[in-house]
## 1
Amino acid sequence: MSHPDSRPTHLASDADLRQHIERLSLRLTQIEKLYRSLFEDADTPIIITDHVGAILDVNPRAAQFIGATKDSLLGKNLTSDALPPTLHGLAPILPAAHYTPVLRRPLEMSAAGKEISLDLRVRHVDYAGNPAIQWVIHDQTDQRALDRARDDQLYMIVHDLRNPLSNVVSSLELLRESIRNPNMTPAPLALVNIALRSSRRISLLVESLLDMTKMEAGQFTLATTTARLDTLIERAIDFVRPAADRKHIPLTVDVDPSLPPVLIDVNMIERVLVNLLDNACKFALPGQAVHVSARRVDQEVHVAVRDEGPGIAPEDRLKLFQKFGRGSSALGQTTGTGLGLAFCKMAVVAHGGQIRVESEPGKGSTFTFTLPVE
């Protein structure tokens, strides 16, 4: 004999089950909508294919990256030659993607004459109830270029430090020998001067690197004092004169005698002058002069460093003052680390001034920076 309450209990269980199924169905619909929203709005290119490479879906970012409309891509196979060049690199990976649930590969390719670096992440997914492959494409082109630039910069920094450091070591070794043998040449004072100049060049680069890091982090405070620019210019000239003399480069100075004093961080502005003069001497040919001038223009002082060298290629002028932007001269010479000019811009801007370059291939370059009158 059945229990009198068995029927109502059974009906209640069926009702609960239906409600549970409805809740699950609603939840599933919400999840699908969320996935579709994330898929459509993602900043990263995403492609969905079946396991033989037929394209089932692409998000808007992928269509933009590929350079084609979504409708023109759907149904096409990754192995098709008719696909845009940006997809040609995926076909060789398809067999591994078919058998490997999760896969990550770097991919270097060329499209539209541009080298592209991709970080490709592939995984098996369910798409509309069927097994599929999701291709997530991370464009690493800019990051790889930045990494290469940093590696180049590091090499150039080490190179720029190694030469003066070698001079310091050699001078000290010779100085030690001169103490043991007073009759040897060169004289001890000359060796000390070489070591001092080289040490100061090392200090110049290291201080600039440290100050740039602080300025970028907003942690740098100017140690300002009233100073005369004609004195700073003479000190900067004295610093680069040995290098200029070795290349027979005349250094000329034209400073307005009525130039007013300026409120500056003396150490920083002196390094700006040294960097600009050093660059000018580096690219001037033997016998070509480097000129320094300073004038007051309204409420600013304009300081210009002009050389008679090969000039700067037009496409390089905008990136000269970037921290990792290395340009080249009109004759194809590299411009060193580029950190000197990046420091110059940061230092001048920190003082409320501006810096610019004017150049014409074959006719030299002029770097001009401004400082507010006190």
## 2
Amino acid sequence: MAADDLVHDLSTNLGDSDDPFRRVRLEKLDALRGLGVDPYPVGFARTDEAAALDERHAALAAGAETEEQVRVAGRIRAIRNSGMFIDLHDASGKIQIFCHKDFLPAEHLALLRLLDIGDLIGVAGRIRRTPRGELTVNATSLAMLAKALRPLPEKYHGLADIELRYRQRYLDLIMNPESRETLRRRSRIVTALRGFLLARGYLEVETPALHTIPGGAAARPFITHHNALDIDLYLRIAPELHLKRLVVGGLSDKVFEIARCFRNEGISPRHNPEFTLFELYEAYVDYTAMMSLTEEIVAHVAEAATGGLRLAYGGTQIDLTPPWPRRAMAELVLEQTGVDFLAIETAASAREAAGRLGCALTGSENWGQALEAVFAARVEDRLLQPIHVTGFPRDISPLAKADRNNPRLVERFETYIYGWEIANAFSELNDPLDQRARFEAQMLARAAGDEEAQPLDEDYVTALEYGLPPCGGLGIGIDRLVMLLTDSPSIRDVIAFPTLRPR
């Protein structure tokens, strides 16, 4: 069997063979081949995108014609008057195509009759503006670039099934300009973030996504197996420990990574198992410098993405103008509940207080975990305007330096906006003996059933023994930041291909 015949046989029999719309398009595919037209050719030399033509001819009067010849390409989104008018969309916008026997040769008129909405075509022709004011290309030739075998969703209702939008993101992007703009704005945000840091002397680096020991965050990892080495490996839950190894090595005093991370946790409007985490480390500064840096970064990318520092999210007006308030976790809890956790001495008393406040506990929480549970239940969702929450318990912060004034706490803050954690930062722990002791305490918690406690990373402790300069570290969740700056209600709106349960 010839290759072309094999392709024809497979294309006819695979897929929804009972779909009458698809069957008609398959018949048109055969007809195209019968005319000697390749329905899937290689390339098309276009000269312009739709937006560039609109800009260049903004002053062209209604009814005016030009002698300018252009070549455009895109997807057919509408066909009117038996193909005389075609709305052609490319990534930049729309251009109208005028197809008439006075300009098109017979073989191209034959091709025109086989076009469908959704097909990708190339057009050569002359620019004019119709009497009604529509910028138009008078087509002198048509080229089939990709025959669409499935019809697009109906124009006026679009892709209404939200679940289908995430599963078939390509259809969502074709049909919904809002989805395209959200993902494009995400790209601008990441570009602005990278440019901001590079301009300030930070070095962008890459660290492994496969770890022999998962660390850098309290999270359950995904496990995989390397066949050649016959060892289990873990998908990265955070890049932190490898980034600090680079600072130990003197690669740079300022490093950052925009890292794809993976946590084996539930899915929610704010959680996806695969997500993007930005982390940086800067030598010879502490966590207070990271607070100012967080404000500068968020303000910079907000300006780049939205043009200002005031935005609406979910109907709430948010002002990102620095500086932002700095409040201690225990202080905020006291303000909302009347309970002063700093006056509570034992873990049992802290659990009892948290239980009275309606927190669901396992019964094994330490003092810091009880305080954190109350903060999450009674305070977090009230923090709508930007705020840095300081005074985190040492119990839940194994990688942060102890607070200079209270050894129960650490020099750590989390930044909250609209009730969400947006950033997390420390004065980084660089005492190797203290770090080993913290890891050993985490291992005891792990043995007691805490699956998110961090295991001991011997090589990281060894690296600290060669000397990590005092430094500040900062992590920002890119996905949540994009949600905020695009007024997106779900993390799945800002990730091109979110994790979904198979059907």
